[in-house]
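Final paragraph of the annual report: two paired records, presented back to back.
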Amino acid sequence: MDSNDRVLGLYVGYSGRGLDAEKAGCACPVREAFRPERWSSKEISSGGDTQMEASFSLFRGLSLMMYQSTLVSDRAPYDKFAKGDQSVLSATAKQGLSIFRDEGKSINCHGSPQFAGATVKELRGGGEDDLIEFMPMAVGAAFYDGSFYSIGVRPTAEDIGLGASHPKFGPLSYSRREQQGRNPDERVIVRPHDRVAVDGALKSSALRNIEPTGPCKHNGA
């Protein structure tokens, strides 16, 4: 934990690693952050836990979600460059950015300020990407979910990705839902006999903070 962190920096331990037990012990923040009915019961569960202990995964999950929502990456050299400061990027970095945007067409899969596809904004209709797209493949052409590509590191049969289906809600893929007539995207028609290429498809990784947040693959590779 960095002492400069704007949320938890005040609670960093004297060693500079982790949180100080007295300032940020588990019980104290739970009592301050959650209503008493979530932690104050004196009854012991069948597993021998207090209510606070039994509910700790809930506290941890909600706290992590809310903490991560405060982490806004907007101070990278690129951000300053995008605001007009030409001096923050070296000539080599500018050349790389040009390749990223133009010859390499990386921006097609890593667009938006997050340098990612299928972001919340995009999926809620606030972006330019379509939920379902049609594109030439290595062999023929097919419909696929926007920003999901065959980029897995395991054989498709071992990691089917977006091609999977939920037992209650059906296919994870918008393309397959459209093919079933469930119409998630009114702009696209995928007929029953049309080819859909989503087996093994995975979301293109976000490139924001990619240097300190690797590994980049969804399975930790």
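The closing record of the year follows.
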Amino acid sequence: MHKHTRFILFLTFALCGHSLAVDIIKPKVVIITMYEIGEYTDDAPGEFQFWVERENLDKVISFEMGPHDLRMNDQGLMGICTGAGVTNSAIVIAALGLDPRFDFSQTYFIVSGIAGGDPQDISIGGAAWARWVVDGDMTRSIDSREAPEDWPYGLFPSDGLRPNDRSDGYTFPNMSFQLNPGLVQWAYDISKDVALTEHPEVISVRELYKGSPAAIAPPKVILGESLGSNAYWHGEILNEWANDWVKLYTGGEGNFVMTNVEDNGTLRALYRLADTGYLDKDRILVLRSASNFTHPPKGETAVWTLTAPYPVNGLTALESCYRVPAPVVHALLDGWETYAETPPSETPSW
């Protein structure tokens, strides 16, 4: 952070009623979660609870700009819960990055949350490290019922005149965010063999997807892209759009695996903070675990998928949201003498 900016923010913070006698906190790793149910411990878990309980995030730091207080432990791990949705995630992460009590210049940020998974790529409870995060909100659209007969759906880019056409017009900036390939590969290598949980209820849902080998297989850790969109969509037509959209905005490199309603807001805030010197964009990771499928099995409708309850209330996915990133977090903390200065990196396998 620029020291003059920090001074101005620090003074502003003080004038708003906060004490100046506060040491700057330098988190080593920040886990970003999006929702919690009830309390932080000892009840039905959301994305935040396992981190609070299992990593002893017992230090409470008030955070008036978010829906939840921050949590931290003595090892330098901080946890934040932004609230669901693109707007919440963007505002809360921006507020965190600008908070003068913290220095995030060497901090690693790891998004960890549940998502809808494409059954062509992943099983319920499986987890994917994103190489790209793509914004699915900045679209032009018409109702598909009014679309020309040769259109696959009614969504198309701002710089095009039909689906999958970017030949003309204005394009929104920052439609996709490519994460540090070496860091993503390093995180994947550490976590790819983590044991993920199974449950009979999940298995019974997977068995409905007989035409999708990835869906009926036991859950595992893979590499695959995250598409963020405030619209909570389902169905084969929009799943086709998601796959096309991710390829369109990654130059054909990305493969859509996970859909969610926060990552585009979170990444937009983190990258804006990085561009202005508050943090390092090469220290960002995104992990999503499939709590449900994005389209129905053969013989069922999109409404069936949309209204079906998450198997086991998403518990296997919530477990994966902790189990998969946890060894990555510990490796960063244990190797801090090295990783404080230089992010870990492995040669990408893709």
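Residues 60 and 71 are 5 Å apart (CA to CA). This concludes the annual technical report; the extension proposal builds directly on these records.
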